[in-house]
């Protein structure tokens, strides 16, 4: 397989995961409204799993170096683009669900979620060497802030489900996954800091 096709693998996985979520919703829902609600939920889950790979890739490689973690880290940009694709499918699914049900979302959700989409678009458009060089330190700030903001929206959405008995199981599965991914990044940060301190002491 060529290097080009390897590069496309994360985006292909994101596409297949999102398409599977939509197909499963279409097959499981009893009517159009239920199908659209399930599609909004399940496309968010598919995109969360892709997000977790992009968010944890560098930390996993720092903590558990291997050929596989190095490969995933090298493809971090493609995992990020895969997440942008998957979350665009979530946007299409939720617009369809809201149109069909006529439900309104609270203003806070529209502002918080809408801003996440602005960041996702900005990050996707600048996920290339030329933008990285041109933006310099601003690129790091955009991507550093953006990825943690998106993490927060996922965590906030899933943690919010813990208070609702009907949706508690979803919160119990996905909120700890978000916390675990943050934990990995913190442990990797500590490991790198220790290595730097040791190196400067020698
Ligand atoms: C204005 C923007 C957004 C709107 C209007 C919106 C709307 C929705 C809707 C209608 C659902 C289905 C709710 C249900 O029936 O349980 C949903 C689920 C969800 N959305 Fe979005 N969303 C937005 C943006 C986002 C963003 C940016 C993220 C993450 C970064 C996100 C993460 C989630 C999660 C985690 C779920 C729950 C999935 C589950 O139950 O497993 N959403 N959203």
From TrEMBL:
The chain crosses the membrane at residues 48-68, 80-101, 107-125, 146-163, 169-188. Keywords: Membrane, Signal, Transmembrane, Transmembrane helix. Residues 1-23 form the signal peptide. This is Uncharacterized protein. The lineage of its organism: Bacteria, Pseudomonadati, Pseudomonadota, Alphaproteobacteria, Sphingomonadales.
